[in-house]
Amino acid sequence: MGKGMGIIVSKKKKADDTAAPSPKDKEELAPVPKAAVEPAAAAAPAPPVEPAELAAPAPPAEPAAPGAAAEPATNSIPEAVAVKDGALESQKMSFDYKLQPHSTIPAPEGPLMVCILDGFGENEFKDEYNAVHVATTPTIDALRAVPKRFRTIKAHGTAVGLPSDADMGNSEVGHNALGSGQVVDQGARLVDMALETGKMFEGDGWKLISQAFSKHTVHFIGLLSDGGVHSRADQLFGCLRGAAARGAQRIRCHVLTDGRDVPDGSSVKYVEELEAVLAELREKGCDARIASGGGRMKVTMDRYEADWSMVKRGWDAHVLGKAPYTFTDAKTAVTTLRGPEDATVSDQYLDAFVIVDEAGAPVGTIEDGDAVVLFNFRADRMVEISKAFEYQDFTTFDRERYPVGLRFVGMMQYDGDLKLPANYLVPPPEILHVSGEFLVKNGITTFACSETQKFGHVTFFWNGNRSGYLDAKLEQYLEIPSDKIEFNKAPDMKAREITAASKEAILSGKYKVIRVNFANPDMVGHTGDLAATIRAVETVDACVKELLETVDQVNGRWIVTADHGNADDMVQRDKKGKPMKAEDGKPLPLTSHTLAPVPFFIGGKGLPDGVVLRDDVPDAGLANVASTTFNLLGYEAPGIYKPTMVQMAA
Ligand SMILES: O=C(O)[C@H](O)COP(=O)(O)O
Ligand SMILES: [Mn+2]
Ligand SMILES: [Mn+2]
Fold this sequence. Notes:
Layout: E1 8-9, H1 34-43, H2 51-54, H3 86-93, E2 112-117, H4 131-134, H5 138-144, E3 150-153, H6 171-180, H7 187-197, H8 204-210, E4 217-224, H9 233-245, E5 250-257, H10 267-283, E6 287-295, H11 308-320, E7 325-327, H12 330-338, E8 353-355, E9 371-374, H13 383-390, E10 407-412, E11 424-426, H14 435-441, E12 446-451, H15 452-461, E13 475-480, H16 495-508, E14 513-518, H17 520-525, H18 530-553, E15 557-561, E16 598-603, E17 611-613, H19 625-632, E18 646-648
Parallel strand pairs: 2-14, 2-15, 4-5, 4-9, 5-6, 7-8, 9-10, 10-11, 12-13, 12-14
Antiparallel strand pairs: 1-13, 3-16, 6-8, 15-16, 17-18
The structure holds 3-phosphoglyceric acid and manganese (II) ion (MN) (2 copies).
C-alpha cells in the first residue's frame, strides 16, 4: 500500500534591573513610579549567572525517535513504542479490558469505519454564511434523510470537559472525548482551578521558576487571546500577577497573536489588555514588558512537525532577539505588521517581531539562568518549541545559542510519554482506558489516517494524549503530508489522498476499524474564506461518498461524525444572530470554531436494518460515540463509558 501515492508512514520523533527596588520580603511589591523602572530596565544588561546555578541539572537529551514509528521502506507495521508511565501502566494492568459480545447486535462481516469531518457543525443559522449549508453535499444530504440513523450530538462546553457552555469545542477535547468515551476536566478547566485554589503557586514547576525571581528574568511565551482553545489571556494575567506578587523582579512576555480562535484584528485589543497588566506590575516595582512576538501560524506554534521553520522563527525572536522587524512597543508592532486596511495581514500570519530599546537593543532576550514558561495549556502546538528548550542536544534547527541553567516549564506537561516538558505548572488531564486500549487488548486491528495537520488528532488526542502506537502489531497510523500553504489556496487539501489510502485499507481486509479525519472544513474554515470553505465541504462530501461505497463493497458499517463546528458559520454575528459587517459593508469573517452540535450518522450495507439510534439519550455528546462504536463492532460497551446511542429495534 502507498507506493507511488506520495504517502508516508509517520515517523514522529519521537538583565537584572539593578536599579529597580527589590522588596523581597514583602508579599506585595511597593509601588514605584513607572519612570523610575523603565529606562533602567531597558538599559540593563543581563545579569551574570552564578557558577553554582550553571551546574544545575542539565536538560535531558532528545530521546531517539520517540512517538510513533520508524519509517520502513514500505508501509509495513512498524515497531511498538513502549508506554513508560508506571502509574498509568499499573492501573491498566489491573483493569479488565475483555469485551463481551453484544446481546443483540451481531459482529459485522466487514470493517467499521469512523469518519471525522473536522470542523463540520450542524448550525442553527442556515444562511449564506453557513458553508455546510450552502455547499452542494449530496452524500451528507442523503444521510440526513435516513430515519433513525441521523442525529446531532454536543461537541462544546461542559459536554467535552471545558469550563462552561460558552466555550466552543476544539480538536483536542473533541478527539479526547471521541476516543475515550469519557468526559474529563480539560486543560482550560484545570488551570482555572489551579489559579483559583492557589495550587499553581505551590507546585514543583512554580518552585523551579521562582528560583529565577530575584536575579533573573521570567519569560512567558504563548498565544495571547481568550480563545480558550490553547490558552487564555486571563490565565496568563493570573500567572504574571502571581509571579510579581511573589517577588519576580523582571518579567518578559513573548506574545503570539491569534485571529484564529478569536476574530481577526483582535490582537490589538489583547496587546492593550496585556500592556495594562504589565503597567500595573511596573507600578508595583516589577520590570515587566513585552519582548517579542508574531502570528501563531508563522511563529512558534507549528504542530505535528508540519513546518519547523515556524519554531525556528520563534526561537530567534524570543531567545536570540532576532526578527525581521523591530519596534519599541508591541501595539505599534501589531498594527504596523497588520498593514493598511485594504491589504491587511491576518493576526494569524504576522511576521516575527522583537521589541527594542531606544538604542535598538532587544529588551528581553532569554539568558542563562532565566525562567521560561510556555503558558499554553494545549499540547499540539507546544511540543516542538518545548523540544527546542528542553533537549540539550536538539539539532532540528540551529539554535545558535542555548541558554545555560534555564528554568523551563510548560503550563502543563504536553506529552506524558515523552515526559515533555519534565517540569510544568499544572498536571494535565489523565485520560485512562481509551477505546484504542480496549481494541488492542481484544486483538482488534485499526488503521488510522489523516494528513499532517490532523494526524495527531486521530492518534495522539484520540488515544488520550499518548504518542505512538498502543500496539504496533495491531495498528497502522498513516500520515499524508499536508501542504505548507494557507489552506484557502488549496481547499481540497489532501482529502483525495486520504480517501485513496483509506479505501485501500478498507479493501485490504487487514483492519477491523478504519479511522479517518478530513481536515478541510476546519482548516479552510479557519482562514475565514467562505468560498474556499464551501469548496472544502464539497470535496469532503465527495470523498465520504467514495468511502461509504467502499465500505459497502465489503459489507462493513460506518459512523460519520465531526469533532466540533467551524465551516458551519463563517460570519461574526451580533447577539441576535445578525451577520456583522465592516465599515465598507463587507461581512466580518468568523475564523473560529462554533458552538454548534455536530452530525452523527450510522449506516452501511453490513448494518442490520434493526440497528437504529435510541431516542432516550437526547443530551448525548462526543463522549457517547465510543460506546456506540463498540456496539457496531458487535460488543457491549465498556461500563465506564458514556451510554451508547444505538439499539437493536425490537
Ligand atoms: O490550533 C488550531 O488550529 C486552532 O486553534 C484550533 O483548531 P483545532 O482544535 O481544530 O485543531
Ligand atoms: Mn477539529
Ligand atoms: Mn480548528
